[in-house]
Amino acid sequence: MRKVVFIIGLFCSMLVMAQDMEAIIKGERAAYEAKKNYKFKRSGQEYDLTYQQLNLTIDPGVRYISGSVYSELIALESNFTQFSFDLDSRMTVDSVHFEGGSIPFVHNNDEVTLVIPSRAKDDQVDVEIFYQGDPSVNEQNGFSFDYQQSGPISWTLSEPYGAYGWWPCKQQLYDKIDSLDMNITIPKNNKAAGMGNLVQVDTLYPDSSLVFHWEHRYPIATYLVAVAVTDYYEESHYIKFSDGDSIFHLDYIYPSYKPQADTLRWAIDGMMRGFDSLFGDYPFRKEKYGHAMFGRGGGMEHQTMSFMSRLDFDLMAHELAHQWFGNKITCGSWQDLWLNESWATYSNAIARELIKSKEEYHEFLIKSISRATRNYGGAVYAYDTTNVNELFNGDMRYRKGAMVLHQLRWEIGDSAFFEATRNYLKNTDMCYGFAYTADFIDEMEAASNTNLSPFFDRYVYKEGFPILSVEWNRINTKTININVSQTTSHPSVEFFPLRIQFYAKWEGGDSIFTIVHSQAIENIILDLGHKVEELIIDPNYWNLAKYTLFEGDHSDMSAVSIYPNPAEQKVKVFVLDKKVDALEITDCLGRLVSEYEILQLKNSTIDLDVSHLKPGPYFIKISAEGNQSTTKMIKQ
Ligand SMILES: [Zn+2]
């Protein structure tokens, strides 16, 4: 029932406290303050969106935007004549252009419905909606106006349900826009942050306003389209990959933030190279990666241009990782949001492991375990997506999910784990598209050649975590006894099988070993070949679990075996090389339950009748040639 793996290694328990991740979560939770739950928009299922062009005039000092959105789409139905886009009813649609003329439309219930002469299935339809209004009135906070030290700023943040608040879009998670252009007209001295490559900046006269032309040639989910406008200071450089290729990196920062940015910017190079080699090529290598500062706490992983409150190490790692997890592959439904958030959070831990120190990596894991296990219930899978606050639950979607990935890595090993991750990210059925939890499980199962359904069932779909009480004692100068008992925090899971790592220390040496914990109450005897002085459980924080480790009474007696344990009717007691004189059984409060006089030859087995004991934990105390030993026994 047990498997022992010896890995010689060093362990350091120095821990460094790190800052809280709340701000990251809050920043991505666009509608955090929204009081009402929002009905998920489902317009436009009858067409495939192939191209959109946003032509917008934005003055961050004025709560108003105007312009047009041009869309190219392919009809998915025959007799294609009526279709719609999502747009807040409080925005004003001025006209809709189709084939050189205006066409009728109806704008109500946050939806613009258009009617065109009938088109056949697979026909392309081009349509341009001209509109204007104050998008900041929308409850989903998709578009904000604010101030930074050198002037006004406006930015968008549409995740999850805010895009329809500021532009006519197809707000959903099943059809990415295959190609996108953004032409943003802004006041002079400002810059407009956008997606992809900045191909041109035009100056308009007489007021010297500027037009920023951004061109993005990768598929993009609607909620990842964003724009931010203010008086930005620009810094850029190229990050070189190990294969000789490089990526253009652009920072749009507040002028007042420049001194801080100069001390923080270094970290992005190592993260970009690290993720690129671990997860596969940066998904938008032909274009850029960038940061644009915005006024919300935390960050948001807009495609190729993350919006940031600051250039903090953890925040940069989280949002950069989203370019793979969330942007290249987007959760196929909001229920599957953990595929975005848990991965970005776990990648933050990986960035610490790669670039910082083992202590800071461990500190992140400890914090994640503590945040996840402060909730006795709660699932990683988001069953309720109507409440945005619950959807972006930091303990579940971020911290617990990150620990589930970490534990999965432990269960199947680094090689299978990262191979599966790379396969997932390059699977042509999903990459630059959408994935569901089942797709991710398929890749992990294929690479590890393991049925992982029970694992994902317990950790992603069901609730809770294991709570372990672990008692250890030395039964002689070479052997220890480890008694493990497990309960679970939530009734949806009865038992969590675990591989538990231990660190043992003795005079002049140490060792790391692993036990397989496969039943709720278990007694494991291990010959480590040394007199163990100190034992630490799960020194690398692999498991999402709560542990209490007790040190029991030690014995200098030769090896003592008590089996079976748990016992029903009888137990056998064997003591190596000593003659047993007396045995007594006490209950867990130390009260004497049974006493036995033993007449026995050295190295023979003693049969004890325990049938009279009530079920529960007991201690068997053995006296042999002046030595004493106590071992825990469970009566079933
Ligand atoms: Zn995130």
Q: Which hetero compounds are present in the coordinates?
A: zinc ion
In total, the number of strands is 37
What name goes with the CATH superfamily of the largest domain? tricorn interacting facor f3 domain
Radius of gyration: 31 Å
Computed structural class: alpha+beta
CATH class of the largest domain: Mainly Beta
- Strand content is 35-45%
CATH architecture of the largest domain: Sandwich
CATH topology of the largest domain: Immunoglobulin-like
- Chain oligomer state: single chain
Which ranges are low-confidence, i.e. pLDDT below 50, for 5 or more consecutive residues? Answer: 1-19, 30-40
Question: Order of strands across the biggest sheet?
Answer: 6-5-9-3-2-12-15-14
Could you estimate the helical fraction of the residues in percent? 10-25%
Average residue-wise pLDDT = 90
Concise overview:
By secondary structure, this protein is α+β, with helices and mostly antiparallel strands. It has three domains: 236 residues, Orthogonal Bundle (Neutral Protease, domain 2); 277 residues, Immunoglobulin-like; 82 residues, Macroglobulin (MG2) domain (Immunoglobulin-like), CATH 2.60.40.
Walk me through the topology:
Elements: E1 5-7, H1 22-28, E2 47-58, E3 65-75, E4 80-86, E5 92-98, E6 101-102, E7 105-108, E8 111-119, E9 124-133, E10 143-148, E11 151-156, E12 180-186, E13 191-193, E14 197-203, E15 210-216, E16 228-230, E17 233-240, E18 246-253, H2 258-264, H3 267-279, E19 288-293, E20 299-300, E21 305-308, H4 313-322, E22 329-331, H5 338-355, H6 358-373, H7 388-391, H8 394-412, H9 414-426, E23 433-435, H10 437-448, H11 453-461, E24 466-474, E25 479-488, E26 498-506, E27 509-517, E28 521-527, E29 534-537, E30 546-551, E31 560-563, E32 570-575, E33 580-587, E34 592-597, E35 606-609, E36 616-624, E37 627-635
Parallel strand pairs: 2-12, 18-19, 19-21, 22-23, 24-30
Antiparallel strand pairs: 1-27, 2-3, 3-9, 4-8, 5-6, 5-9, 7-8, 10-11, 11-16, 12-15, 13-16, 14-15, 17-18, 20-21, 24-25, 25-28, 26-27, 26-29, 31-32, 32-35, 33-34, 33-36, 36-37
Helix pairs in contact: 3-4, 3-5, 4-5, 5-6, 5-8, 6-8, 8-9, 9-10
The structure holds zinc ion.
